[in-house]
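Work Package 3 (structural annotation) set out to generate three-dimensional models for the target panel prioritized at the project kickoff. During this period the team completed the workflow that converts sequence records into C-alpha cells, so that structures can be stored uniformly alongside our sequence database. As a representative example, we reproduce one entry of 208 residues exactly as it appears in the project archive.
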Amino acid sequence: MEFASEMVVKATLFGLRIGEIPVTLRKDGRSRPPHLRTWRDGWRHLRFLLMYSPRWLYLWPGLLLVLLGTGLLAWLYPGPRQVGAATLDVHAMLGAAVMVLVGVEAITFALFAKIFAITEGFLPEDPRLARAFGIVTLETGLAASAVLLLAGTALCASVAVDWAHSVFNYLDYTVSMRKMIPGALLLVIGAHGLLASFFLSILGLKRR
C-alpha cells in the first residue's frame, strides 16, 4: 500500500518530475479474496507518511504546546485568575508546565528525526538545518542549558529560603508552588538540553 505513496512523496521531496503513462486496466484474474486489511495496511501507510513529515508529527504540535503552556504560566505567575465561575491557580500552573515539557520533548524529537532522516537518505538536504549547525553548536547548547539550570536553581532555592524563614514549618502551597513549578520546569528543561545537545552533536558528526 505504501509503495505508491513513497514514490509520490520522494519525487516531490527530491524535486523529480512526475509523468503519467496511460495503461489499460484489466480485471483481476485471481480467484482468492482480497488480502488487504483495512486497519493494518492503513496504519502502515499512515506511519510511513508521518515518518516523512517530522515537522507535522513533532515540530508544530510541540511549538503549540510550548506557546500555550508558557503563556498560561506567565498569566498565572502573579496570582490566581478568575475565568467565569472557575478559579485557576497552581494546579493549572502544573498543567501548563507539563504542556511546556511535552512541547520541548516534541521539538527535540523533530530535530532528531529530521537529522536522522537526512543522514539516512529518507529526506533531502536542508540548507537551513546546515546553517543552524554552523551557529548552534554543542557549546552554545550547553551554555543555554546551563542558564536554564541556574534560573531553575534560583527559583527553587528561594522556596528553600522561605521554608527556612518559617523554621521549616508549613508553607502556603499557593505561594511556594508558584515559584517551585517554574523552577522545577527550568531544571528539567535544562537537564534535557544538556543531554540533547550531546546527542545532536553525535548525529551531526556523520553529516559533517
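DSSP finds seven helices and two strands in the chain.
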